[in-house]
Write a structure and sequence with these properties.
257 residues; alpha/beta; UDP-N-acetylmuramoyl-L-alanine:D-glutamate ligase; 10-stranded mixed sheet; 10 strands; globular
Length: 257
């Protein structure tokens, strides 16, 4: 089935809305090497229409995020990098969120993979699993609805190392496979999105896609609808950017959403 603008259903705000009614997102990500990834994801979540975006990160990373964008709330962990020791503190923030994104910019050391593997099995909120967390997820053990957002190499890692089987998928537990034509896999149906341009291979566009997904999830859309909206919208922004620029960065792409 082809994805088009007609398939997209974007949330509408009520005139009586209050802060928080359109959702609270929590992003678990970032490292001293990759500060930008959770920032791009957070801004994209705002673009999806969510009210509040919070990032939980190691202390120095969180301060760097604050200096870049004052709209993002940060929770500063007293550590240099993520480890299982921070899970109890992180879960307090998870429990207050409407949807959670994990993986952007964390890294893939043994310590961090163990951290993500344990945390993924504890989270019961709607979840987007991206980037480094795709190397840790065991779909068969997931206790919540989710969207995984791998590119083709990450998809192969999931198949070989992470015990991925298609039988675990449904319209509530899906894979958004990024590529020349994005594919949304539900186990029974495949949705194909044809928006986008080759210039979107630039670093950071995947963080934007994941941020859009979690933003829509936080507004109570289903995983399938959130993935459809996000794939189409991100690709459409790329097409608009291409008309204005020969090339563009992920930050510039955000302005076309």
């Amino acid at each position: 089935m082809l994805v088009s603008k007609k398939n997209c259903k974007f949330p509408k705000r009520k005139l009586t809305s209050h802060k928080g009614d359109s959702g609270r997102v929590l992003i678990i990500g970032g490292s001293e090497e990759f500060v930008g990834a959770p920032i791009l994801a957070a801004i994209a979540a705002f673009k999806a229409g969510v009210d509040l975006v919070e990032v939980v990160a190691p202390q120095k990373v969180a301060w760097a995020i604050n200096t870049y964008n004052p709209n993002i709330i940060t929770h500063k962990l007293k550590c240099r990098e993520f480890s299982s020791a921070q899970i109890p503190a992180i879960m307090k923030f998870v429990n207050k969120a409407d949807a959670v994104l994990i993986g952007n910019g964390i890294g893939r050391s043994k310590q961090k993979l163990s951290f993500m593997r344990t945390l993924l099995e504890k989270i019961k909120k709607p979840l987007v699993i991206d980037a480094d967390a795709l190397h840790a997820v065991n779909i068969g053990k997931m206790k919540t609805n989710f969207i995984c957002t791998p590119h083709h190499r990450e998809y192969e890692v999931m198949r070989v190392n992470c015990k991925y089987q298609e039988k675990y998928l449904s319209e509530e537990k899906i894979i958004l496979l990024k590529g020349n034509k994005d594919k949304i896999l539900t186990g029974k149906k495949i949705y194909i999105n044809e928006t986008g341009v080759p210039e979107m291979t630039v670093g950071g566009t995947g963080d934007i896609l994941a941020g859009l997904c979690v933003g829509f999830l936080a507004q109570k859309l289903s995983p399938l609808q959130s993935a459809i909206n996000s794939a189409w919208l991100c690709g459409d922004a790329g097409e608009k950017a291409k008309k204005k620029r020969v090339t563009f960065t992920a930050t510039e792409l955000l302005s076309f959403i």
